[in-house]
Amino acid sequence: MAAAVFFAAANIFALPGAQADIPDASGEYVYYRDYSFNRESYIGFLFYDEQTYEARWFAPATENLAEKNIDILFSVEQKNGRLDLTGERFVAPPAQEDVEVVNYIHDLIYELSGRRAKLQKSLLVDYEKNKLPFMQAGIAEAASYEQFGGPVQMLYDAAVPIFNLKKIVDYTGRDVFVVVTIGKIESSKDKTFAEFVPPIKNAAKRESFQIKSAKKETLSSRVEIGKNSALVQSVQADKNWSLAGQNVWTLDDSAIVSMQTMGLPEGDALGQQKTAARFLRFFASSKNGVYCDWNALDIHAGGSTVKISARTYNPKTKKIITDIKTVRAAAPNLCGCLSLAVYTDDYQANRGYFDRIAKSYLCKMEQ
């Protein structure tokens, strides 16, 4: 079996005027929680191509307030190093009282694109050396932004698409504009951007899950690479796990483990900051109605290994899942990837058990 190609090179673009560490791909989007409103509010930006963007402002219903949803499709062009809006069409039209919100969306696009374009430097975060919590790590820029109280700190991370903006912190140290999720729509049927809702607070009720005592067992995968070598991956688990498919095992209906082979483009390596950022954007991406909560995200990068711990939620099923990806170099431009996905309630109740399995992951080439 040939190694899977990981990063596609087609249909990628950069924000006009910006020096992009990771070009955006058609269909990528980002959502932010915007604390400048008196009610809970979110704003998302979707990239179609260099001439077309979409913006959506969403405010969930409350006890006293109805849900609000404003969705605008913009045509743009580059002008003086920022996006210039040349036309718009309302996908979800605003009410008369929401005209100010529409103007605010216009201002945000001008401001965020203009401020990003001025940063002619790398926005890659060194996650191997970083010791800060994930949402505090980034390339910090001091700025003045009246909408958010005047003096602010704007935190950038190349893993975030479009504006590369992770969050804005006001002069009191409070987050006022912060990324909630990123994603990529896979097709015209993928409504993940149009139907975004914030992270759910309560998971669907599940029966109490306990790990049964069982004999130790190695779960392993062997993939032939060429004529005389193979990529071998394994974890130390037990007989509670059942083979469910090629290189896929399940633990009742609670967890799933899979192993796959991944290729990197020529010249890329796991120790590079760009590779870690690409993995973040790829693995921590919402799609097909399942969202990744960026405020529950963590990454550890070190030499030949990148580990990403994410939490995903499905608003329709109310399922919350902890998803741990461990990518390990096996040869130049060739990696193995362990995926461990488990219901978050079950993971928290049996964290030591699942962490031991993830930590036991081995990946190597054999003749």
Textual characterization of the structure:
By secondary structure, the chain is mainly beta. Helix content is 12%, strand content 45%. It is built from 4 helices and 24 strands. The strands form 4 sheets. Strands 4, 5, 6, 7, 8, 9, 10, 11, 12 and 18 form a 10-stranded mixed β-sheet that branches. Strands 1, 15, 16, 17, 19, 20, 21, 22 and 23 form a 9-stranded mixed β-sheet that branches. Strands 13-14-24 form a 3-stranded antiparallel β-sheet. It starts with a strand and ends with a strand.
Which keywords apply here?
367 residues, 10-stranded mixed β-sheet, 9-stranded mixed β-sheet, 4 helices, disordered N terminus
List the helices and strands and how they pair.
Elements: E1 4-5, E2 12-13, E3 24-25, E4 28-34, E5 42-49, E6 52-59, E7 68-79, E8 82-92, H1 99-117, E9 139-145, E10 150-156, E11 165-170, E12 175-184, E13 216-225, E14 229-238, E15 242-245, E16 248-251, E17 255-263, H2 273-283, E18 285-286, E19 291-292, E20 298-302, E21 305-314, E22 319-331, E23 334-343, H3 344-349, H4 351-359, E24 362-366
Parallel strand pairs: 1-17, 12-18
Antiparallel strand pairs: 2-3, 4-5, 4-12, 5-6, 6-7, 7-8, 9-10, 10-11, 11-12, 13-14, 14-24, 15-16, 16-17, 17-23, 19-21, 20-21, 21-22, 22-23
